[in-house]
Amino acid sequence: MSKLVTRWHSTRVDRTVDVVRWGTFGRPVLVFPTAGGDAEEIERQHLVDACGELLDAGEVKLYSCDSVNGQALLRGEGSSHHRQWLQRQFLEYVRHELVPAVRADCSSDDIELVATGASIGAFNALACICRFPDVFRAAICMSGTYDLRRFYDGDLGEDFAWSSPLHFVPQLQGDALERLRQRMVVLASGQGPNEDVGESWAAAHVLGSKGVPNRVDQWGPEWPHDWQTWRAMLPQYLREVG
What we know:
alpha/beta, Rossmann fold, 11 helices, globular, 21% strand, eight-stranded mixed sheet, 8 strands
């Protein structure tokens, strides 16, 4: 299958970020890496191969970028406020740099994306569809970690509140909320080692209380917080969201 690697320096996150595309045709799917991952993590972990039939059939194109915010959390980069700022800036980068680049690659100024990812990647997918429902049509959130407060020490500021869907969705109203109510969020989680389906139920409660369509899928205890789970989940849900 075709693969394209691009990179540019983003002034929003103040670093160079890699973006990789697999496939040539089909609806664009933005796959966020896990916390420490880079843009090619999903290929190394065979998630791209798991979606091979969809790619070969021209049903989807997969895109991925470096996990800027997740890497910063793992490294403890800078102060807590810096990491909160970077979380917001990363989402701004996605909306105002990455999405336009994907649309240009698709030769469409208005094509809508599917957002997906696992663990911290699921947080990013949920944050993107909730904050930017004008450009994301669905989110497939796998084994998500949605409450990031434990990753920050000290006070939680405006940047955290802006970028955390558990905290900003309850405040949404008007056009932004109405657009989000036309979207769909799948919250899938195994119940095996290192999984916490309670994170998905907590996110579902926040979404449901605002009338946002969502569904929690509980996979069984044989499904751990690991790549074999996500390789099984993603192609199934990509077929479903259409």
